[in-house]
Amino acid sequence: MRSDRQEDNILSLLKEKSDELARGAQRGVILQPGAIGDCILTLPLAEFLRDCVGLGGVDILGHTDYIGILPGRSCVDGIRSIDSVELHRLFSETKTFDLADGDPLINAFSDYAWIVTFLGEPDSDFEQNLIFTAHCSRSAEVITLSMNPAPRMGGMKPAGKLTTPSTELRTGHITDFYIEQFVTQSGLTLRPWRVRRGDCLIKATKSDINSGRELLEEIDVDFSEKVVVIQPGSGGAYKRCHLDNFQAVAKELVSRGIKAIFLLGPAELEQFSDETKKNIAGVAQCLTDLSLTEVVGLLSCADVFVGNDSGITHLAAAMGIKTLSVFGPTDPVIYGPIGPDVTVFRSTTETFASEPSEDLQQELLKVLTA
User: Fold this and answer.
1) b/e per residue, 40-62, with b = 16+ CB within 10 A?
2) The CATH homologous superfamily of the domain defined by 4-147
3) Mean pLDDT in each 10-residue stretch from start to end of the chain (370 residues)?
4) Domain limits of the chain?
5) Do 346 and 338 contact (CB within 8 A), yes or no?
6) Of 141, 219, 222, 288, whose CB has the highest number of CB atoms within 10 Å?
7) DSSP track, 28-40
8) Residue 367 CB contacts under 8 Å (≥ 6 apart), including other chains
9) Pairing status of strand 156-157 against strand 164-165
10) What is residue 191's predicted lDDT score, i.e. its pLDDT?
11) Hey, do 4-147 and 206-368 end up sharing a CATH topology, with the first three levels equal?
């Protein structure tokens, strides 16, 4: 006859299996209002929700210009426009917040058993109103995450003109920080899980590769040549190393028979003067104002990508493209790109953005021409 302990073990296993199946039927959503880089650095969290929490699917609610490329190329199942939900109403004072019958907010989160938000703060009016709103249609867990870790005391250790970071933080990479916060707040017993730095978070489709080849054929690229895509911009001017660095590198690559292509997005077209854009085009060919889908196609056909700390740099790294990333004031230990072939160049000199650096140029060329 079975002992009581054996029966308890069987019941425990059955409950565990039942809970696992129940979670597999649930879906989650991540509210991510950030730009391209922020959205890409959220992908390991989405993967964690799917693989470790056991959710049947994970969506991202954000700016569609940035997240539209994710379904079919990443672990994200679906996207929703941040403008499709009146999220601004959730910032009202909790004591005055209410939902009348038929309010569209009532069913805004009815599909989700887990809601992870980078909007609002823990215990804020936004979080309390989000919980109330979600529970109007179903029982849901709401987890509010901080976007950035809080630094401890620390500094920079100089190593010549190019330096390495020594700042101590409460965590390592920002993607681990997101998952650590979720585990702490969720109350779930989950096995330890660290983000795998060498993973491809985004995989180009055959259609992407075909469109990328068509794009390059239009500018007469010989596919026997090595193709290096250079994006000299970034969301913040303080993150952009001096443009002369990239121009000097491109000029040297062209002289060695390597195809260098400058990629200029809307930010660069707005920030750079007409004279600057003319100078860039005089060094190498330029592709301008491509859609993000077209950028994915272009990168899928590139041998190497070179850029600052920018969203497109994170995209190239996440796609598995050999990526050379130039960091200035932001710490790559925390915010560095994730991918299987990433090399980071770090400079904290005061002239990072204002003056060219021959040392940086030579370091980049050493890798590019190896």
Assistant:
1) bbbbbbbbbbbebbbbebbbbbb
2) NAD(P)-binding Rossmann-like Domain (3.40.50.720)
3) 58 54 75 97 96 95 98 97 96 95 94 96 95 93 90 39 40 89 90 82 97 96 94 90 97 96 92 92 94 98 97 98 96 95 94 95 95
4) 4-147, 206-368
5) no
6) 141
7) EEEE--S-HHHHH
8) 324, 343
9) antiparallel
10) 75
11) yes
CA distances from 103 to 90, 99, 321 (A): 13, 6, 46
Phi, psi dihedrals of residue 228, rounded to the nearest 5°: -115, 120
The confidence score (pLDDT) of residue 348 equals: 86
Is the separation of the CB atoms in 183 and 266 below 8 Å? Answer: no
CATH architecture entry for 206-368: 3-Layer(aba) Sandwich (3.40)
Q: What is the DSSP string of 193-256?
A: ----TT--S----HHHHHHHHHHHHHTT--TTS-EEEEE---SSGGG---HHHHHHHHHHHHHT
CA dist list (Å): 159 to 76, 113, 162, 283, 332: 40, 49, 6, 32, 16
- As a whole number of angstroms, the distance between CA 171 and CA 148 comes to 10
- The pLDDT of residue 229: 98
> Does the reported pTM lie above 0.85?
yes
Beta-carbon neighbour count of residue 318 at 10 Å? 26
